Amino acid sequence: MSVTAASGFAAAGVAAGLKASGKRDLAIVQNLGPLSAAATVFTTNRCQANPVIWSRQVIADGVASAIVLNSGGANCYTGAQGFQTTHATAEAVGERLGVSAGDVLVCSTGLIGDQLDLGKLTTGVTDAAAALTAGVGLGADAGLAAAEAIMTTDTKPKQAEHRSPAGWTVGGMAKGAGMLAPGLATMLVVITTDAVLDSAQLDAALRAATRVTFDRLDSDGCMSTNDTVALLGSGASGVAADEAEFAAALTAVCRDLAEQLQADAEGASHDIAIEVVNAASEDDAVTVGRAVSRSNLFKAAIFGNDPNWGRVLAAVGTTDAVFDPYGIDVAINGIQICTAGEPDQPRELVDLTPRAVHILIDLHAGSETATILTNDLTHDYVHENSAYAS
Amino acid sequence: MSVTAASGFAAAGVAAGLKASGKRDLAIVQNLGPLSAAATVFTTNRCQANPVIWSRQVIADGVASAIVLNSGGANCYTGAQGFQTTHATAEAVGERLGVSAGDVLVCSTGLIGDQLDLGKLTTGVTDAAAALTAGVGLGADAGLAAAEAIMTTDTKPKQAEHRSPAGWTVGGMAKGAGMLAPGLATMLVVITTDAVLDSAQLDAALRAATRVTFDRLDSDGCMSTNDTVALLGSGASGVAADEAEFAAALTAVCRDLAEQLQADAEGASHDIAIEVVNAASEDDAVTVGRAVSRSNLFKAAIFGNDPNWGRVLAAVGTTDAVFDPYGIDVAINGIQICTAGEPDQPRELVDLTPRAVHILIDLHAGSETATILTNDLTHDYVHENSAYAS
Lengths: 390, 390
Known about the structure:
Two copies of one chain form a homodimer.
Chain A: E1 9-14, E2 26-31, E3 37-42, H1 50-58, E4 66-70, H2 79-97, E5 104-108, H3 118-133, H4 140-149, E6 158-163, E7 169-175, E8 188-193, H5 199-211, E9 228-233, H6 243-263, E10 271-279, H7 282-293, H8 296-303, H9 309-316, E11 329-332, E12 335-339, E13 342-343, E14 356-362, E15 368-375, H10 379-386
Parallel strand pairs in A: 4-5, 8-9, 10-14
Antiparallel strand pairs in A: 1-2, 2-4, 3-9, 6-7, 7-8, 10-15, 11-12, 11-14, 12-13
């Protein structure tokens, strides 16, 4: 499982003291080669954290030897001192592992606006690197420790893997429970593969995969400053992967992780899939699904097991997608509750007690489709996010 | 107070049985003339309720003799039968008051997707018209009854007035507690004036006033299908108002009502004013303020009295406004908590216990400004909106 499933990778997760709880809060994933190809996708938020600013430079040449991630602080809006902290962290990793600091990606997650403690970070890097150089970073336990170290309000670590019959493997870990919205769906994700692919091939596959997975997870409409998805390729399998097969496998791993993120979203009591069909374009389908996923009234209704399709259509109506406003069908959990903009089956037939909710919106405007994943708006979401900083 | 403050207007509010509670749920405001000038602004949601579709036709010639409003059902997504209900309501009002049905504006508010009971509506119209024709619709009590009849989840009626030394008056009433977002800020509003102004003058003043008041109230980011602001002019004062003075007075009345809507927003425990200054354009200021007002994480933090300025900047960063992401200042309730994208005064100095909250965002990109009004995201908001349909 996780980032150590693919050969050529080692991982460690340690407690550096950044989390008040004393739990694991620093992870390193090292690419042991022979290749050190890499690709990344970052948040599209214009307010970007220092690790994102740093990692954009690291990835410019398509090479990364390691990635270091910490929870317990986002290192965002911390100015020159914060950037220096990120830089020093990369230098420490480079020194301990014998690689260039310029090939070390950095990710941070936690509260915005607080300085990270560089002393604790450095101690954590030293401990994690010691485990890696001692050769204890290769098994599933090491991958799990890394996955645990990046958790914030996550209640469980998130890992996935895919083994190709051709002899290569993709593995990954993710964190993310709040600020889940696209571009990307606020998260840190590290995916590893031992397939023989160069950085351009990894980049193309990663962009294609995130576009239809993490970018379509919109739990609470809030876009993070720290989102990073990194894909590292060791080439250790010696097998040159078929690009189409690899893209499909990578997409499957990303989808698996995205669904784990949705299932563990802060305070949520329903996992909602909003499927928009017969749209004039894929963009239209995404736009409509996203508008519904961002309606607090719709999301609060689902929390209360209320199949309030009026709130679905009110959200659809705020978009510029192609449709006849009075020609839309809505089905909730298989019950066609609205046909051509009029009531159809009685609301009472809709059973919203299961955690999984399926909203089907038929725009009757074309043949394109997209599904947006979101969650309901609950008392617990409000509670967790009002108490986060305390 | 209210819609009967200006001369030349009568109002009535009755219980037609549309609300299960048996409370008042139908109002008529009649323009007694001599003028019957009118202007309206409607929701920009493409999914529009039947009363909106009807009223767009009524207002086309700038003439309205009366407006009838009901709570207890939005008459939206109710198809041909729903439109016929709206039409029949206007016909009933026209017949009882001796005016053309084509000069009767109709507004409805309540749950989307249920048919209104035309029999109850007609009985209510008959009762309200009887009061009007008996001459008991002229006082403040009549205005209050009308304001009460349009309430849904509002906890109190909303009324405002402005008396000009020049001898004319503006009065108004409003409802709206959820689905408060622009274009317009989901509501029904009726404003009356006895100033001598034609419909084109009323229209210009109304658009200018709503642009900087109701359109800048964004309580929960959800846009309604039924929003209507109607301005009726009787000319009964005989005084031709100065247009600039009238526009200022109308804006003051609209702002007063908008602030009453904010103060009574569903479940809210804080009234938040997000003031964006030194923007490159007014549109930029509005865009930035609105992005912050729609961040559930920011709103949940304010509920928890947490001055989480990182969530402010994370929301600002999602916009395309002109600014240097690392050159923004943020003050909360007078404490400069972030300067040029770095921590400044300690969070602990910010007192968020008062209901009124002021967020000041300095973009350092120009000289334009705008203020968006919003509310926090609370347990009660979630509760009220998960139970709405039941």
